[in-house]
Amino acid sequence: MKLLHIVLIPTMAQGHMIPMLDMAKLFTSRGLRATIITTPSFSAPITQARLSGFNIGLVVTPFPPQGSSLPQNIVSFDQMTDPDLASKFLGAMELLQEPVEEILQQLRPDCIISDMFLPWTADSAAKFSIPRLAFYGTGFFARCLSEKFEIHKPLDNVTMTSDPEAILVPGLPHELKFVIPQLCPFFLEETANDFTKMFEKMNESWKKTYGEVVNSFDELESGYANHYKNVIGRKAWEIGPLLLCSEKNHHRGNESAIDEHECLAWLDSKKPNSVVYVCFGSLATFSRAQLTETAAALEASGQDFIWVVRKNERDEEDWVPLGFEERVRNKGLIIRGWAPQVMILYHVSVGAFVTHCGWNSTLEGVCAGVPMVTWPLFAEQFFNEKLVTEVLGTGVSVGNKRWMLRDSEGVEREAVARAVEEVMVGGGAEEMRRRAQRYKEMAKKAVEEDGSSYNNLNDLIEELSNYVAPTKQDIN
Asked: What is the pLDDT of residue 229?
């Protein structure tokens, strides 16, 4: 069997780069050759992985590319502050096609794995007669739900209820209920924008896409994996959790804003399962009023906590309630910037994770065996919340019903404090913790030799090794 060379092309966002880099590590550990094509601002983690012993190829292409109207200082999705910037960013990503194809001409890989936001790579793969695998960065549960909705035309696939704002989604392994504000872009015409067009291009690219790699494992969502592959009819391989591909993965993403030894010393001083870890990812921001409500909720909960606040979220300190930091000095640790999240979650003192339900964070919580307080904010996060709270039974919702990426607000302190209390010391807390630990063990076994994800990767490698490009007659 020949040595397969796989090129990975991530989108310029931390939440998309992190699992792609994990995937490259996994491939190299299994004897494949892996190269990542990325931009200068996202090359540092790959360089660090190379220095740590991972034999990953790296090719850097400028961004914004030539001909783009995007300002030169805008290099990442987390800098999208208005629709105009978002439109220019998406346009700049499309302009990457020509320079990426020049790189592919030199590399001549056997397969491309590319991010969902780069649908043009399906055409690029076809030019070189190689398969393209898509990577959406979420699990089968969210993928199945996403397939149920067509932007602005979802009502044919759902059932209305007596509540005019609530819908039921039929035809899936579980009956799932959502409120329409949680699905804002699917229902509201005024949300039509360049992202709508992007999703249309993603759907169109499937006609030239060979399959999909999924950062999940069968034991976590087997019913939805089966539905996606056998009912929806998509070819897919679940090869995760990708974060478990290496023992060196406790540091993921940016440099920590806190000394890790200092953080560990603080955690070591706490009792087992006594600390609530609060973090909402790298994209969302909260209003000053919501930050104040959250601070009050954490104080009212009476629990020890670590709270991660985005460094550029509020430069001012006036969102902090009067005397808050002094009152919680011995109970709370506030990290302003990037946190060593995996290290924190795996610590024995952490008993709950307040999360936005991004898929990376959700899987990190699963792999750490920590129950979750779910606070989704946008995108498929509302889907992931349902998986955690209603399917896995390892979390409790704060009850957010509003899709808001910027200056999110509207969740009152009482709701947050109630959810934290329920997960930490409520009547069902022990059962949630037991279930969370069980999924942790399943995740670990899935990536070990003869585990479900291990074997799925074997199957993928074998299929790619035997790939024969379709002829024009086959396509017709």
From this structure: 97
Read off the CATH number of the domain in which 375 is found.
3.40.50.2000
The pLDDT, as a whole number, for residue 412 is 95
Rounded-to-integer distance, Cα 138 and Cα 146, Å: 11
Pair 300, 420 in one domain: yes
Q: Are 341 and 252 in contact (CB under 8 A)?
A: yes
11 and 82 co-located in one domain:
yes
371 and 233 within one domain? no
Q: Identify whether residues 222 and 371 lie together within a single domain.
A: no
Q: Are 8 and 20 in contact (CB under 8 A)?
A: yes
Residue 183, domain member (yes or no): no
Per mean pLDDT, which range of 194-198, 316-320, 457-461 is the poorest? Answer: 316-320
> φ, ψ for residue 430 (rounded to 5)?
-65, -40
Q: Among residues of the chain, what percentage have pLDDT more than 90? A: 69
| Tokens matching residue 446 | 């899935």
Is residue 219 located within the same domain as residue 347?
no
| φ, ψ at 44 (rounded to 5°) | -60, -45
The pLDDT of 31-43, averaged and rounded, is 97
Angle in degrees, CA 181, 182, 187, rounded to 5: 60
**What's the rounded Cα separation, in Å, for the pair 400 and 179?**
10
Q: CA–CA separation, 288 vs 409, rounded Å?
A: 9
What average pLDDT does the chain have? Answer: 89
Q: Cβ contacts of residue 378 below 8 Å, gap of 6+?
A: 284, 403, 404, 405
Query: What's the predicted TM-score (pTM) here?
Result: 0.92
Question: What H or E segment, with its residue span, contains residue 340?
Answer: none
The predicted model gives 429-438 an average pLDDT of 98
Strand partners, 8: 36, 113
**Taking the CA atoms of the chain, what radius of gyration do you get in angstroms?**
22
* Count of structural domains, the chain: 2
Q: How many helices (H) and strands (E) does the chain have?
A: 19, 16
Same domain membership, residue 300 and residue 230: no
428 inside domain: yes
Tokens 């930050």 correspond to 291
Which range marks the domain in which residue 45 is found?
A: 5-150+189-248+447-466
**CA-based end-to-end distance of the chain:** 30
Residues 322 and 454 in one domain: no
| Active site members | 16, 115
- Structural contact between residues 113 and 7, judged by C-beta atoms closer than 8 angstroms: yes
Query: What is the number of alpha carbons within 13 Å of residue 285 lying toward its C-beta?
Result: 15
Q: Name the nearest CA neighbour of 216 among 387, 96, 32, 397.
A: 387
Neighbours of 25 (CB within 10 A): 24
